[in-house]
């Protein structure tokens, strides 16, 4: 683990130390290049770099790119420069399946060290959760233990490529063509007279070019919320591949995971390297396969992210079996609040495919009145079959 | 230095000592000896209280000459940074408000077609040759400067505010990147216009959509959060000098606890200042005294029907009681 956290004192000069710090940030998921390293060094010459607070602020301004990074930066900075001893988990796919003992102790260690730091990769109440997992694993199948370890063992890049195609088709099905206004377009069905006159001015009143206009596509944005609690683990492979494919196929798509808390995974999954994206996802999905708090997670989503990312042109896709430890009312109110933002809500339930399934889980029945579409899905093919339904939506 | 000397209203003798923060930024000195604390002080004099991280980000943007991207909820004072910075540096503020469908003609330059047309007609009557008309109508005289072109043609580096960049289309973002890296604009009829001075670029965004990595990487970044209690008190004191300390404490406490409530639209700093102005306009000096007036002045803080319904008189009184 010290491979990740190299301490500054071992490096010979400031340049090497800064390079070490950049490597440390990069290992921890910040996207930085040589340009940032250079900018950081230059920045330090403009501040009193002997003052830790000034250096911290300066490096924060240079190295962070979004609000999430800003939140994590303090911990990463402490770990590297102040020898805080926080041990970051190295994101590398385990070649050989390590024994459960090693894994659980590593997780527990990481979480203890993280405890008060508020790093986004660890839940606040994460310690209790991990212990509960540890007990649960005694009875769990081998498959589940594997699930805990690394998502990259679970989802193959080929799956993502296939899911990407399906996601692309679904995205196309969701395009709404009802815009009334016409915009200038290279190939349009009407002549854009205003532009014609405007452009003819430059040519002395001769209309040399005939710009056209067309009704623009108004694509719907897809926001996916995927349940990765214990009861959903066997479907997670399909759904995660689908989400990963979706994020790569559609620039405006957005995605979240939830088990006992909600994690935004859109940033991580947009990584150009599919394998690395899954690696970053594994770090975020700490607590994978644990308990489920659907109500609380949906509630949190509707209060926070939904305000920014959900509007009338959004489809919220919930992938969950509806087995919840919270009160069912919470799901109902959360969905009602979400619905008020004008979005469409689709709930895909893997259990619905079973014979004789009825949405009796109290959470599921509380959700039903707010759903625009409630469908079964547990294979990629099922998701592909949604295309028709979505066109009609 | 020269603009300091040529200011007629302030002769050399009565200038404050040169190490005063306001002077340092007017002289555009940058270097290791200018700390971000000086910038903080200078901005505070203009009524903007910036926390350490924000001040440092601005300081670096000035000294490294890189664009600064500010993100944060609506109403935390992102746009105000640019205004105050231009006041501190005593330069012009050039603002480009982004919106969906913003194009080069609105952001960079446009030919003044009407004038060109008139000029062509007039030239025909005067018997001017086509060739000379053409060179004349595609000259500087007929060029309409839009904010980006204007910003790079200033003699003194201006502050260029690109407001709500996330509202503009992604194609525009890509074009903007080019300008932000080269600071030059090509007008086909005129040739390439290179920046006479590098503007100080401030971009703001509040998360309508995700910005591209390329843009984020080119900028320094600061996340502007809602201020903590002390900062907000300082802001209130800076903006409403006449307000009593006790009332100021109550107002800030009230707004801070209101932000923790479950609201659709969380009140920002501007709303807080409106609220304070409303209260002092009504001559109130204690929030808890008159529930009816408090409820009425909530109009400055709560901007949706639901929020008004949620914060009932009782809730408002409870919050005000806590703040007092």
From TrEMBL, chain A:
One Pfam match, by short name?
VWA_CoxE
Residue ranges of the region described as Disordered: 96-133
SUPFAM superfamilies membership = vWA-like (SSF53300)
Which branch of life, at top level? Bacteria
Instruction: Write down the Gene3D superfamilies for this protein, in alphabetical order.
Output: von Willebrand factor, type A domain (3.40.50.410)
Q: Which InterPro entries match?
A: UCP010256 (IPR011195), Uncharacterised_CoxE (IPR008912), vWFA_dom_sf (IPR036465)
Spans through the membrane:
none
Q: What is the recorded name of this protein?
A: VWA domain containing CoxE-like protein
Q: Which organism is it from?
A: Pelagimonas varians
Q: What is the lineage of its organism?
A: Bacteria, Pseudomonadati, Pseudomonadota, Alphaproteobacteria, Rhodobacterales
Automatic annotation (TrEMBL), chain B:
Listed transmembrane segments = none
Instruction: List the InterPro entries hit by this protein, alphabetically.
Output: AAA+_ATPase, ATPase_dyneun-rel_AAA, CbbQ/NirQ/NorQ/GpvN, P-loop_NTPase
Residue ranges the record marks as coiled coil = none
Occurrences of domain AAA+ ATPase (ranges): 64-230
Highest taxon in the source lineage: Bacteria
Q: Where is the composition biased (Basic and acidic residues)?
A: 1-12
Disordered: annotated span: 1-25
Query: Tell me, what is one Gene Ontology molecular-function annotation carried by this entry?
Result: ATP hydrolysis activity
Classification via SMART domains: AAA
User: What is the name of the protein in this document?
Assistant: AAA domain (Dynein-related subfamily)
Which organism is this protein's natural source? Pelagimonas varians
């Amino acid at each position: 683990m010290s491979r990740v956290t190299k301490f500054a004192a071992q490096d010979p000069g400031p340049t090497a130390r800064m390079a070490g710090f950049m490597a440390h940030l990069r290992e921890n998921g910040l996207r930085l290049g040589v340009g940032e390293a250079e900018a950081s060094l230059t920045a330090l010459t403009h501040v009193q770099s002997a003052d830790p607070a000034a250096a911290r602020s300066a490096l924060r301004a240079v190295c962070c790119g979004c609000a999430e990074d800003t939140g994590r930066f303090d911990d990463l900075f402490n770990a590297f420069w102040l020898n805080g001893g926080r041990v970051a988990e190295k994101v590398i796919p385990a070649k050989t399946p390590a024994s459960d003992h090693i894994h659980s102790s590593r997780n527990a260690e990481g979480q203890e060290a993280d405890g008060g730091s508020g790093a986004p990769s660890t839940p606040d109440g994460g310690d209790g959760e991990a212990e509960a997992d540890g007990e649960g694993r005694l009875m769990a199948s081998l498959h589940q233990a594997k699930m805990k370890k690394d998502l990259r063992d679970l989802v193959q890049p080929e799956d993502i490529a296939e899911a990407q195609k399906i996601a692309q088709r679904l995205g196309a099905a969701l395009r709404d063509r009802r815009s009334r206004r016409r915009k200038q377009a290279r190939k349009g069905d009407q002549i854009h007279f205003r532009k014609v006159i405007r452009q003819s001015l430059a040519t002395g009143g001769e209309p040399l070019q005939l710009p056209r206009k067309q009704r623009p596509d108004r694509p719907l944005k897809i926001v996916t919320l995927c349940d990765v609690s214990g009861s959903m683990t066997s479907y997670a492979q399909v759904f995660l591949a689908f989400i990963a494919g979706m994020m790569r196929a559609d620039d405006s798509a957005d995605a979240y995971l939830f088990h006992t808390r909600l994690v935004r995974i859109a940033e991580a999954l947009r990584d150009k390297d599919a394998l690395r994206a899954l690696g970053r996802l594994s770090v975020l999905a700490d607590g994978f396969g644990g308990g489920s708090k659907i109500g609380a997670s949906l509630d949190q989503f509707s209060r926070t992210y939904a305000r920014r990312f959900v509007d009338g042109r959004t489809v919220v896709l919930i992938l969950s079996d509806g087995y919840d430890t919270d009160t069912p009312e919470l799901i109902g109110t959360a969905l009602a609040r979400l619905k008020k933002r004008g979005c469409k809500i689709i709930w895909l339930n893997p259990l619905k495919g079973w014979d004789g399934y009825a949405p009796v889980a109290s959470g599921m029945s509380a959700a039903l009145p707010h759903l625009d579409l409630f469908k079964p899905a547990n294979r990629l093919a099922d998701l592909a079959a949604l295309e028709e339904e979505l066109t009609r939506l | 230095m020269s603009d300091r000397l040529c200011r007629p209203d302030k002769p050399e003798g009565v200038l404050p000592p040169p190490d005063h923060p306001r002077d340092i930024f007017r002289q555009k000195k940058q270097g290791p000896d200018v700390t971000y604390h000086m910038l903080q002080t200078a901005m505070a004099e203009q009524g903007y209280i910036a926390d350490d991280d924000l001040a440092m980000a601005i300081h670096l943007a000035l000294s490294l000459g890189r664009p600064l991207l500010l993100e944060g909820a609506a109403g935390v004072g992102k746009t105000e940074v640019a205004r105050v910075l231009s006041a501190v540096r005593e330069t012009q503020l050039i603002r480009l408000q982004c919106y969906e469908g913003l194009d080069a003609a609105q952001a960079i330059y446009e030919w003044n077609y009407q004038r060109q047309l008139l000029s062509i007609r007039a030239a025909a009557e005067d018997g001017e040759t086509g060739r000379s008309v053409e060179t004349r109508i595609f000259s500087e005289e007929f060029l309409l400067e839009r904010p980006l072109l204007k910003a790079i043609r200033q003699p003194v580096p201006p502050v260029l505010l690109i407001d709500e960049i996330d509202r503009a289309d992604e194609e525009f973002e890509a074009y903007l990147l080019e300008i932000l890296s080269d600071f030059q604009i090509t007008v086909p009829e005129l040739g390439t216009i290179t920046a006479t001075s590098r503007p100080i670029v401030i971009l703001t965004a509040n998360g309508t959509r995700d910005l591209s990595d390329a843009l984020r990487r080119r900028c320094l970044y600061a996340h502007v959060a809602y201020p903590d209690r002390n900062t907000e008190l300082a802001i209130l004191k800076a903006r409403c000098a006449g307000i009593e300390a006790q009332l100021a404490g109550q107002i800030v406490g009230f707004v801070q606890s209101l932000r923790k409530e479950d609201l659709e639209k969380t009140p920002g700093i501007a709303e807080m200042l409106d609220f304070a102005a409303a209260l002092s306009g009504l001559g109130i000096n204690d929030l808890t005294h008159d529930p009816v007036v408090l409820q009425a002045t909530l109009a400055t803080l709560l901007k949706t029907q639901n929020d008004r319904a949620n914060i009932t008189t009782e809730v408002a009184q409870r919050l005000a009681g806590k703040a007092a």
